[in-house]
């Protein structure tokens, strides 16, 4: 794992203002950055992401996820969330949570990575059990923690992004591969099947 | 230094002789030992190394039209922030508290109390007149590169006035100069 030679870090800069996402709040126009941030750097402003996640839950259902559109920002600002909520059949605004699992990798330091699994509970999986299984399978620290959106998630120490996806599909047959999405270090969320 | 920097401030660009190129590489390697192993990638020997002379005795070290390092007069070389973000561990660092961020990003020099308050930190021991990466409370990436006015020991002890001169910061002219054509 360890290289003597320093490896360059890949750095994500805001698609709107060009600053590192964590500095958008001090940039020329934070409001304009927000839609891009929610989509591309959800870790940078947890509260923002939480708010957006709540608003977007209804919208998620009819959106093709992990789209390959490169033009950010504009697309997401053009349609207010309310509009989509109203369009739901029967005029009901009941927000059904989309059954999906997001496996995310974040690098803390150069060497320390953490893989986060969200949404296992939507498939009736007990998070404690899943966490234990992950810990055993990958011989690593694994724990259930409260994530930024107040929901519980599983944090596994180390970079097991794809190994975990594979392990999930092998272990819990009720979870279809198509429900699993991956996200690497603040990059865009993509379906595991395409990754 | 780079608040209003633009292409127009470049008074001349010259491909330097290989002896000068060697000197620049050596000086960067001495200043940032961790960077030495990757200097062959950053400043490949076969690529022409350009030094762009700018106003205020500023020199930019440019490869493939991308500014990578700069220095003032014959002072120590410093990486651009974009390069530093790729190799965040190569510079010594100090940290300002959250309240100082907006001032740093408007180009203000770094006052001692911003470094000695609860959110600030003098993470490394640094002498006076040395380049440092300026980080901020709660943020991962450096937001500026500066030159210490006094040693970190004195910053803590004196705790008054300017501790670090702000040389290059996010969204200044150099940050916006991705290419020099
Ligand atoms: Zn931004």
From TrEMBL, chain A:
Its main location: cytoplasm. Interacts with the 40S ribosomal subunit. Keywords: Cytoplasm, Initiation factor, Protein biosynthesis, Ribonucleoprotein, Ribosomal protein. It holds the Pfam family DENR_N. It is found in: Cytoplasm. Residues 60-91 are annotated as: Disordered. GO terms for biological process: formation of translation preinitiation complex; translation reinitiation. One of its GO terms (cellular component) is cytoplasm. This is Translation machinery-associated protein 22. The SUI1 domain may be involved in RNA binding. It comes from Klebsormidium nitens. Residues 101-172 form the SUI1 domain. The keyword Endoplasmic reticulum does not apply. The keyword Lipid metabolism does not apply. Belongs to the DENR family. One of its GO terms (molecular function) is translation initiation factor activity. InterPro entries: DENR/SUI1_TIF, DENR_C, DENR_eukaryotes, DENR_N, SUI1, SUI1_dom_sf.
TrEMBL record, chain B:
Pfam families: Pre-PUA, PUA. One of its GO terms (molecular function) is RNA binding. Residues 92-171 form the PUA domain. GO terms for biological process: formation of translation preinitiation complex. Gene3D superfamilies: 3.10.400.20. PANTHER family: MALIGNANT T-CELL-AMPLIFIED SEQUENCE 1 (PTHR22798:SF0), MCT-1 PROTEIN (PTHR22798). This is Pseudouridine synthase and archaeosine transglycosylase (PUA) domain-containing protein.
């Amino acid at each position: 794992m360890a290289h003597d030679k320093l490896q360059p870090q890949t750095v994500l800069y805001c698609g709107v203002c060009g600053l590192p996402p964590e500095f958008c709040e001090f940039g020329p126009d934070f409001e304009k950055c927000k839609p891009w941030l929610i989509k591309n750097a959800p870790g940078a402003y947890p509260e923002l992401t939480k708010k957006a996640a709540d608003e977007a839950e209804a919208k998620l259902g009819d959106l093709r996820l992990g789209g390959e559109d490169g033009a950010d920002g504009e697309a997401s600002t053009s349609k207010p969330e309310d509009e989509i909520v109203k369009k739901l059949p029967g005029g009901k605004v009941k927000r059904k949570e989309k059954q999906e699992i997001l496996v995310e990798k974040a690098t803390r330091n150069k060497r320390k990575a953490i893989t986060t699994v969200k949404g296992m509970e939507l498939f009736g999986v007990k998070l404690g059990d899943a966490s234990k299984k992950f810990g055993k399978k990958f011989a690593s620290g694994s724990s259930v923690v409260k994530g930024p959106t107040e929901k519980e998630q599983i944090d596994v120490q180390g970079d097991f992004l794809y190994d975990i996806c594979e392990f999930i599909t092998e272990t819990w047959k009720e979870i279809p591969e198509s429900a699993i999405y991956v996200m690497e270090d603040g990059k865009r969320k993509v379906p595991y099947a395409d990754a | 230094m780079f608040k209003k920097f633009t292409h127009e401030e470049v008074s001349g660009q010259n491909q330097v002789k290989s002896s000068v190129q060697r000197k620049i590489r050596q000086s960067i390697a001495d200043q940032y030992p961790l960077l030495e192993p990757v200097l062959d990638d950053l400043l490949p020997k076969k690529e022409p190394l350009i030094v762009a002379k700018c106003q205020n005795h500023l020199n930019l070290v440019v490869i493939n039209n991308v500014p990578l390092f700069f220095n003032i007069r014959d002072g120590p070389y410093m990486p651009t922030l974009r390069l530093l973000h790729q190799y965040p561990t190569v510079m010594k660092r100090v940290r300002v508290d959250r309240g100082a961020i907006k001032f740093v990003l408007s180009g203000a020099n770094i006052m001692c109390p911003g470094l000695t308050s609860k959110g600030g930190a003098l993470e490394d021991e640094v002498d006076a007149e040395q380049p440092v990466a300026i980080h901020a409370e709660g943020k991962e990436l450096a937001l500026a590169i500066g030159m210490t006015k006094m040693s970190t020991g004195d910053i803590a002890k004196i705790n008054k006035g300017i501790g670090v001169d702000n040389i290059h910061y996010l969204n200044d002219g150099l940050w916006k100069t991705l290419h020099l054509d």
